[in-house]
């Protein structure tokens, strides 16, 4: 079994999403010690944002491609293969300005590849990355899962849409929200999320 562990929180050791992704991966490893883990930190090792040069390089003569662009294309291939090879993906996703980190968006742009994770057919788009489980660690400063602020959630809603587009239906969200409302609210939200991780007999990970 292969686990892909992705962090995108920019606060380093103060990041709640990083703390919770580590807890999820540790819980899976405790249940399945033979599982292998590939870790990618999108902050310490950021991917360049998608560019026109990157897209054009796919159909260009390799001799005509700038060395930096060629290196970027090669890295994209590695990122895509990591995703395709994973049985379970653990995504650390803090909400920034009602959406997800730009670092994570850059990663999504590298795995959203026609013919690899999706394709267009006469009947409409078809996801090709089926059979995976994705565990999303969602952290938010306020409350967006319900109430008036729910319309501003372009974090979880976007992820559910794009992962569904890839054909992934087994998506689990571990959420900690209200982190910035008060010190007590933060402690309570983190504790609740950690309890939801540690008390599960199984995360029903793909194998």
Topology:
Blueprint: E1 2-7, H1 16-31, E2 36-41, H2 52-57, H3 67-85, E3 88-94, H4 102-111, E4 118-121, E5 124-127, E6 133-139, H5 156-165, E7 170-176, H6 183-198
Parallel strand pairs: 1-2, 1-3, 3-6, 6-7
Antiparallel strand pairs: 4-5
Helix pairs in contact: 1-6
Short note summarizing the structure:
Residues 1-198 form the Flavodoxin-like fold domain. The chain is of the alpha/beta class and 207 residues long.
Low-confidence stretches: none
What is the number of strand segments? 7
Global outline: globular
Strand count, sense and barrel status of the largest sheet are: 5 strands, parallel
Query: Which strand-content bin applies to the residues?
Result: 15-25%
Q: Structural class of the secondary structure composition?
A: alpha/beta
Give the integer mean of the pLDDT values. Answer: 93
Q: Termini separation (Å)?
A: 5 Å
DSSP helical segment count: 6
Order of helices and strands: EHEHHEHEEEHEH
Q: Going across the biggest sheet, name each strand in turn.
A: 2-1-3-6-7
Helical percentage: 25-40%
**Whole-number radius of gyration?**
18 Å
Binding site for FMN: 15-17, 95-98, 139-142
Cofactor: FMN
Domain Flavodoxin-like fold: 1-198
Pfam family, one: Flavodoxin_2
